[in-house]
Amino acid sequence: MTIRQFLDQDKELVRIDAPVSSQLEAAGILAALDGKPVLLTNVDGGWRVLSGLCASRERIARCLGVSSTDLLLVLAQAMDTPAPPPLVPSAPCQEVVMEPPDLRELPILKHLEGDGGPYITAGVAIIEDPEYGRNACFHRLMVIGPREMVARVVEGRGTHTAWSRTRADLPIAIAIGAPLSVLLAAAMSPPKGVDELAIAHTISPIELVPCRTVPLAVPAQAEIVIEGRLTHRLAPEGPFIDLTETWDIVRDQPVLEVDCITHRRDAIYHAVLPGKSEHKTLMGLPREPGILRAVAQVCEVLDAKLTQGGMSWLHAVVKIRKRHPEDGPRAIRAAMEGHPSLKMVIVVDEDIDIQDWRQVEWAVATRVQAGRDVYIYTGLPSSSLDPSARQVPGQRATSDKVGVDATIPWPAEASEEAIAAVKQRFRRVSYPKVNLSQYLKPTP
Ligand SMILES: Cc1cc2nc3c(=O)[nH]c(=O)nc-3n(C[C@H](O)[C@H](O)[C@H](O)COP(=O)(O)O)c2cc1C
Questions:
Q1: Which domain holds residue 364?
Q2: pTM of the model
Q3: What atom of ligand 1 comes closest to residue 137's alpha carbon?
Q4: Preceding peptide of 325 cis, ω within 30°
Q5: Does the beta carbon of 333 sit less than 6 angstroms from any atom of ligand 1?
Q6: Same domain, yes or no, for 308 and 184?
Q7: Interval 247-254 mean pLDDT
Q8: Which residue's CA is the closest to the ligand 1 atom numbered 6?
Q9: 155 and 91 in one domain?
Q10: What is the pLDDT of the chain when averaged over all its residues?
Q11: Which of 259, 282, 305 marks a domain boundary?
């Protein structure tokens, strides 16, 4: 689904026609309406700015025409069966060529007074790695001049791998207002060599069009495309409020030089508000299939969820069908490998609804003995977004982590009957079902 199709269909869309500035004012409005899709129709004298399209998994599921419960499965299957999108000779995203290219013409939001500058937050960066092929990944981009931005390129990402192994400038294209399937796929981290745009095409079909100045192809239905080069010149990037709603530190990061900007007629600029619902959903949801897939290697996994309180990034709950006493700790370690940013993993049995935090906490309260079921790991690779992580410039951040095995404990050598008896002791009881209308008579 393209973001235009979304605008046509979404009944919850909040439309604001009053004139709005992209500098601080737009961010304030979007924050006040957090969770809702919002279209600002008159930003900086006429631009349309859309935000919140991906704020909830229910809306994403609806846009893709699947149920919320099937969403994870659809994403996981797409990850396993990527299909390259077709190339078309011309496309809407190139209807207008900005001459000369000037980033100041775009309604790029400055979010907070303390930010290092205006930031592109919904830009999907497409690059070609000489060994691994095409990679698509979000990078926040801080504007520092009419044709220059600093890109936050996290160590280990596809973009970083390609950039750090080439001495020349790395050709790059940034798609803003890309179709929903591209947004979801670009937030996934499949194994190196798997093309995120092919995953996107499997989630929901897309087309690509060749860029004008770089040897790359971009989603044809994107709204705005910035073509350029990721240079080896470094400049300070930040301060910036990221996912954790805390200030991320200032780092020296690569400068992106812009050679060409194209866009649709009446282009819609997509802005993801840092730290708010759309950012959290867009980062967290596409990581869950990777966690599922990793845990499936070691035991029978039924569901996985990054929790909202953990910023949809640092904490996960994994539901398994336990068949071996060691399945809990195995699932913990696999989940941390599937999503190395995790700092806490809780593993529960199949009787727990992992969408309900109270049920998860109930499992921890009734099934865990800290000395036996809590696992602590020190100095593992983690998220640079965690303000408590240990950060060394140019290296991956590290953190200490905790895994909680909240599955029903049963001994290794027990018989089937003994295990069944143990499980019985840990089940939540249910009272007999009654039909209340038989008892609550309307008062005459
Ligand atoms: C809204 C949003 C913003 C993001 N910003 C950045 C960023 O600034 N830098 C970065 O390296 N990754 C960022 N990411 C994460 C990557 O897009 C994501 O982790 C991706 O899976 C990396 O894929 P790769 O490892 O194949 O390159 C962001 C993700 C989202 C959804």
A1: 297-426
A2: 0.92
A3: 17
A4: no
A5: no
A6: no
A7: 94
A8: 139
A9: yes
A10: 95
A11: 282
Specify the number of domains making up the chain: 2
Q: Which residues are catalytic?
A: 242
Q: Does 140 sit in the ligand 1 pocket, CB within 6 Å?
A: yes
Residues 162 and 254 in one domain: yes
Whether residue 396 has its Cβ less than 6 Å from ligand 1: no
Q: Which atom of ligand 1 is nearest to the CA of 196?
A: 26
- Domain shared by 347 and 273, yes or no: no
Report how far ligand 1's centroid is from the alpha carbon of 154 (Å): 8
Residue 199 has pLDDT above 90, yes or no: yes
Residue nearest (by alpha carbon) to ligand 1 atom 19 = 187
Q: Which atom of ligand 1 is nearest to the CA of 158?
A: 27
| Residue 442 confidence (pLDDT) above 90 | no
Q: Is 53 in the pocket of ligand 1 (CB under 6 A)?
A: no
Residues 266-314: pLDDT tens digits?
999 999 999 999 999 999 999 999 999 999 999 999 999 999 999 999 9
- Residues 31-90: tens digit of each pLDDT: 999 999 999 999 999 999 999 999 999 999 999 999 998 999 999 999 999 999 999 999
3-state secondary structure the chain: CCHHHHHHHCCCCEEECCCECCECHHHHHHHHCCCCCEEEEEECCCEEEEECCCCCHHHHHHHHCCCHHHHHHHHHHHHHCCCCCCECCCCHHHCEEECCCCHHHCCCCECCCCCCCCEECCEEEEEEECCCEEEEEECCEEEEECCEEEECCCCCCHHHHHHHCCCCCEEEEEEECCCHHHHHHHCCCCCCCCCHHHHHHHHCCCCEEECCCCCCEEECCCCEEEEEEEEEEEEEECCEECCCCCEECCEEEEEEEEEEEEECCCCEEECCCCCCHHHHHHHHHHHHHHHHHHHHCCCEEEEEEECCCCCCCCEEEEEEECCCCCHHHHHHHHHHHHCCCCCEEEEECCCCCCCCHHHHHHHHHHHCCHHHHEEEEEEEECCCCCCCCECCCCCCCEEEEEEEECCCCCCCCCCHHHHHHHHHHHCCCCCCCCCHHHCCCCCC
**246 and 134 within one domain:** yes
